[in-house]
Amino acid sequence: MHNEKQGNEQQLNLSVDLGGGRQVDVEIGTSDQLWVSAGPGIGLGDVWMKDDGRLIDLRVRIRRTLGGVEIVVDRGDTGDPWWPAGGAPRLAVAIDPAARTALAVASAGTDGQFQEVMLGKTAI
């Protein structure tokens, strides 16, 4: 853990080595920032954005997939449902190392209410 002061504001850096290639780094920024780095041994992470009086509690779940990463925004397992089970908004980014491309797709809903849109493809 490292604590550093910049002017009147402080920044806190925390690094945890869990062994087996699992490492997590967290920086708490000088204002309302949070930065998290999950090493290759970490496959799933949740960030809770708690109610600030204007919104509801939301969970941002980041999961490694075989070809990239998936991000889902929901109320969590114990929160009041706001989308049908499995239908929360999600962003999937697929990486094709051989073609050196990345593809982004957004989706939400289930069954007859399912919607999906390709956001774009780019060279990497």
Would you give an account of this structure?
- The strands form two sheets. This protein has a six-stranded antiparallel sheet with strand order 5-6-7-8-9-10, with no helix packed on it.
- It is globular, with a radius of gyration of 18 Å.
- β5 and β6 form a beta hairpin.
- The chain has no helices and ten strands.
- It folds into two domains: 42 residues; 64 residues, no CATH class.
- It starts with a strand and ends with a strand.
- It has 124 residues and is mostly beta strands.
- The model has no long low-confidence stretch (mean pLDDT 88).
Topology:
Layout lengths: L1 E5 L2 E11 L2 E7 L5 E5 L5 E6 L8 E8 L2 E7 L15 E7 L4 E8 L6 E9 L1
Antiparallel strand pairs: 1-2, 2-3, 3-4, 5-6, 6-7, 7-8, 8-9, 9-10
Compact overview of the structure:
The protein is an all-beta fold. Helix content is 0%, strand content 59%.
Helix fraction, binned, reads under 10%
Helix segment tally:
0
State the total count of DSSP E strands: 10
- Cα(first) to Cα(last) distance is 34 Å
String of helices and strands: EEEEEEEEEE
Query: Any low-confidence stretches, pLDDT <50, length ≥5?
Result: none
Domain tally: 2
The whole-angstrom Rg is 18 Å
Largest sheet: spatial strand order: 5-6-7-8-9-10
Structural class: mainly beta
Strand content: over 45%
Based on Cα principal axes, name the global outline: globular
What does the largest sheet look like? 6 strands, antiparallel
Instruction: Give the overall average pLDDT.
Output: 88
